[in-house]
Amino acid sequence: MTQPVAAQFDASALNVAKFGGTSVADFTAMQNCAKIVLNNPATRVVVVSAAAGVTNLLVELAHKAMTRDEINAVVDKIKQIELNILHALANPSAVEPKLNELFEQLEELAHHEEILHRPDLKDAILSLGERMSSLMFAEVLNQHGGKAENFDARNVLVTDNTFGEAVPQIATIAARCDKLLQPAMAQAIQVTQGFIGADEQGNTTTLGRGGSDYTAALLAEALNAQTYEIWTDVTGVYTTDPRITAAARPLAELSFEEAAEMATFGAKVLHPATMVPAVRKNIRVFVGSSKEPDKGGTWIARDCAHEPHYRAITRRKDQVMVTVKTPKMLYAPGFLQQVFGIIASHNLSVDLVTTSEIAVSMTIDNPPNSVRSKINQETLSELREICEVKVEEGFDLVTVVGNNMHSEAGVSSRIFNALREHNLRMICYGANPHNISFLVNASDSDNVVKALHRDLFES
Ligand code: ADP
Ligand code: ASP
Ligand code: MG
């Protein structure tokens, strides 16, 4: 006799599962995910991204000036991706009316006269990808014999109102999860949206690109989950991005610190903030491929069996180097404070810093579609009021992540030896023993990563 689902659910062994864009790209991909969810009775909360490609199309609608026909063409592309999933469902009528409502919102926002100028409207339109995929995935689960419901993440994922890069309110999220999500997940598997939230007034917000990893980690934290699974298109976290070199290989284990460094320094497989909630609540994180779940993956935990000197190499693109220079600096102790004050007032964060007697160089993240970390004319003119400013673009940041990198003889010399033929613009030991970073020309960064990988992992 099968037990009712609620009776099987053991709150002391909760797993939160997150599926990325390629994992929910179409009906076939969604079927793989359904099997993964239903194989593990501990999975009661599922977080999904938008189907692959949909968020990029929504970003176009939110950021690019287009003619009416061009807008309609982009809207149609999105609809087609969703309709292909809908038409593959055994019982499309279960979700069709709701999907049509979302299509109406999509058209209205896409043609809204202020869409290019209002950050709140941008977030409203960006949220639609996750809202559509989660609607459909809940139905795929039902079709596979699960008992699943679509849950609106905005009811629990409360953020501030920094549209585009909203900051989650941890205590409020925990309280709302207790009240709304806990009881719901005792009744049915809850399929919710990654990436989106709402401010206290109920306006839709987003957490920044790739933010679904972060959403699921926040929910795992709020619900006191034991494990958090990230199902993506690679069989775990690799020694480096397998798109850079085919020699990259999956890692069986990673420590929280190593994973947090990798996420911060550009390993796209983990959103930069993913590890923060997991570390706070000591939640073990698994990364694996939804296409090949049997191949296993990477377990990220507080303690590892081995702590090698070199664990992985990451790359973060779109870095700018800003050099501020003034002869006055020699005598003015408040100068640096002023410079960093201006940088901070524009919400920019600095990664590497080098100083000389009269100049300071620093690197700043400058990705194209980001809201916060973008150096702009306003920042530069404020800096120019107090010093000479030089901005150089076209750099990538390459980081070697590992353990005890500063303290043991030979560890960094092996790295420098691997890079002897490359031009390094800046070198920086991390503030902790887990990383050493290099600023290199973007055109050379593939080769830098390959050279490091060859010497540190392939010999
Ligand atoms: P999802 O849509 O599932 O969130 P992402 O595209 O955001 O997937 O992240 C997975 C991708 O991250 C991989 O396809 C891979 O190219 C890239 N990646 C970068 N660094 C690494 C790494 N060290 N290990 C594995 N994948 C990495
Ligand atoms: N759909 C969002 C993006 O493409 C969030 C995510 O996939 O994590 O950025
Ligand atoms: Mg991602």
From TrEMBL:
Swiss-Prot/TrEMBL keywords: Amino-acid biosynthesis, ATP-binding, Kinase, Nucleotide-binding, Transferase
Q: Name one GO molecular function term.
A: aspartate kinase activity
Aspartate/glutamate/uridylate kinase domain ranges (all copies)? 15-288
Q: Tell me the pathway.
A: Amino-acid biosynthesis; L-threonine biosynthesis; L-threonine from L-aspartate: step 1/5; Amino-acid biosynthesis; L-methionine biosynthesis via de novo pathway; L-homoserine from L-aspartate: step 1/3; Amino-acid biosynthesis; L-lysine biosynthesis via DAP pathway; (S)-tetrahydrodipicolinate from L-aspartate: step 1/4
Taking every annotated instance into account, which residue ranges of this chain make up the domain Aspartokinase ACT?
Answer: 398-455
Catalysed conversion reaction: L-aspartate + ATP = 4-phospho-L-aspartate + ADP
Please state the Enzyme Commission number of this protein: 2.7.2.4
Entry similarity comment = Belongs to the aspartokinase family.
**What name is this protein filed under?**
Aspartokinase
